Amino acid sequence: MPVPGRLADVADSPPRPHTGDTVYLSPPDVGPLEESYLIAALRSGWVAPVGPDLQAFEHDVATRVGTGGAVAVNSGTAALHLALLGVGVGPTDVVIVPTLTFVATANAARYIGARPVFVDCDPRTGNVDVDLAADLIRALRARGERVGAIVPVDMFGSCADYGALLPLCAETDVPVVEDAAEALGACHAGRPAGSFGRVGVLSFNGNKIMTTSGGGMLVCDDAALLARARHLATQAREPARHYEHHETGYNYRLSNLLAALGRAQLLRLDQMIARRRHLRDEYAKLFAPVPGVRLVGAQDAESNCWLTVIAVEPQRCGWRADDLARHLAERNIETRPVWKPMHLQPMHAGAESLLTGAAERLFTDGLTLPSGSALTEPQIARVLAAIDEFLSARTGPSLS
Ligand SMILES: *Cc1c(COP(=O)(O)O)cnc(C)c1O
């Protein structure tokens, strides 16, 4: 079969996301396996948002997450939008969203015209504060609001406290849409992330635990919800030979080529998680003797270790998260603050929120460290040495 010349070149040199000697926070981890899946899909002729890799990818992810089915779409954000529509959120509803999250979680509610109401997090994990969420649901109900959904986010790859949250939502009859965009491969009490809500949402963005370069998925047991999402994701096209539409849909389907990439990534998911866990363990060792520094959510053995995050108490350790960030940036090592809370975002100025200050403190005092599974041993050694150098200058030689 004729293959364009450039592909042959690409086949000789697997894609390498790293340029120069910068260590990135969470770069894509792709190699020969992804390349062979992608090229096979291209050669199959299914260069469209439909095809056998798309079907297989949905099946494989649903199997992994333990749900009855899945619908692949072109972003996690699109999946969130369809998930909220799927549980019946309407334009006059409120949607409870953790204030500590990526903006997509709140945007999805806005797309529908619903009003996000923000709730603070547990400072230990960054996940939704369930007691506070309970207070919020009751307060909103008492005022006669319709709570269309709550969207717990499995922050940095650790599941929210579903042991407490699910009974609360069942008792108050609030649908749960699980934003597991960061948490594929994680579990909570042995059950996989993505399987906790009426519907779960995954992301395959370039920085996530596995990637399709961009993509997302709805996962759930409700065949009708999935069929509806699939319909809306394909411009709500009716099954007719001509183009027949009864309502406004979206062009949200994932490309078959990218699904092929995703299938290869899924085969390597456990290996990539193990790599990130190894990095987290190294960070844990390095920071263990440092008073005033802790790893956020690190007690969770079922985390997928997507990002390792430290929280710094400047009064105890004598330096700020920003100081370490600057030290590392000068050495071409990328770090990021944790998500800026939604209630502090100009676009949500004046939004209703129930807060304790936990998310704001994590924003000020938290730092996400290079966590990618594609980091090489020399890169990891460089990051650890740079942190050690920083700590030694402030606290004396570390014990590691
Ligand atoms: C990445 C992410 C999303 C959105 O995913 P995209 O695929 O980038 O649209 C949603 N929620 C959270 C918490 C995320 O981290």
From TrEMBL:
Q: Does the keyword Transferase apply?
A: yes
Q: Which family does it belong to?
A: Belongs to the DegT/DnrJ/EryC1 family.
The root-end lineage is: Bacteria, Bacillati, Actinomycetota, Actinomycetes, Micromonosporales
Catalytic site positions: K208
Q: What is its EC number?
A: 2.6.1.-
Would the keyword Transferase turn up in this protein's UniProt record? Answer: yes
Keywords, sorted A to Z: Aminotransferase, Pyridoxal phosphate, Transferase
Q: What is the name attached to this protein's record? A: Putative pyridoxal phosphate-dependent aminotransferase epsN
Query: Which residues does the record list as N6-(pyridoxal phosphate)lysine (modified residue)?
Result: K208
Under Gene Ontology molecular function, one entry of this record is: pyridoxal phosphate binding
List required co-factors.
Answer: pyridoxal 5'-phosphate
Q: Which GO terms describe its biological process?
A: polysaccharide biosynthetic process
Instruction: Provide the species name.
Output: Micromonospora lupini str. Lupac 08
